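ugh ok fine here u go
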Amino acid sequence: MSSTSSPSLNPATGLPTGWVVKYSTSKVLPYYYYSPTNTSQWEPPRDCDHEILKHFMAANYSLPGPLTTDEKGDELRREGRIRCAHLLVKHRMSRRASSWKEAEITRLPSEANNMILQFERRIRAGEMSLGDLAVSESDCSSARRRGDLGWFGRNEMQREFEDAAFSLEPGEMSHPIETVSGMHLIERLE
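structure:
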């Protein structure tokens, strides 16, 4: 590529400006997100530097084996990663207005907000845990894991979600958080 036709690349990732790597907890795979258009894809963008990206992905997204032992948890905490569960309520304006429960979500954003506030009240009143509610009420496929998203670090989740998650102490739950995916309650597990 000539310098006049190539986009500006991030020297750390090799991705064109506007592109970041995110992590799908439902697929347990990284994907590529383009913030100017709120689009995502599994394949690297066409104009990336594949050699830089290969090294970035190997250094940041190649964890050996399942995350099942306390030793692995200790290692991930030292790396600045945290583990959270969440409950997601999507609405018709959500980035992907469908879920494992509904092929097409038609509720209004205000209805999603009311639902998440009701869930928050029930959890804070001690009626149910976030994990118990997530199993049946979350629009995220992590519902089958009681909302558990696993371990993640900075720059792997949507900014609003990440900021809220990293501000929590283990055992704490956020107030409702809005992202392009919908409305979330987040519980920091570790």
